[in-house]
Amino acid sequence: MIESFVGLMISAMAISSLMLSIQSMEKSYRNAGKHSLTQNEHKIINSAGLNTTSNIDLIKDDIDNLPQSF
């Protein structure tokens, strides 16, 4: 009786850790490829003369609207 209870507890912990790892992987996939502009990208925008706030906001919006399914 005690052995079956211990086995049940072990399996419950294994299932919950599996679900937690799947959830964290899905979160990392959703956020993959989405990051703010780097300093080099800001320098490129400034050197091209496109350093208005509307242009930078447009680029940030484009990054946010990238497809999230793989």
Describe this protein's structure.
The protein is mostly helical. The model has no long low-confidence stretch (mean pLDDT 83). It starts with a helix and ends in a 6-residue tail after the last helix. It has 2 domains: 1-32; 36-70, no CATH class. It has helices at residues 2-31, 39-47, 53-64. The chain is 73% helix and 0% strand. The chain has 3 helices and no strands.
Quick summary:
It contains three helices and no strands. The chain is mainly alpha-helical and 70 residues long.
Low-pLDDT parts are: none
Integer count of domains: 2
% residues in beta strands: under 5%
Helices and strands, in order, run as HHH
Please summarize the sheet with the most strands: none
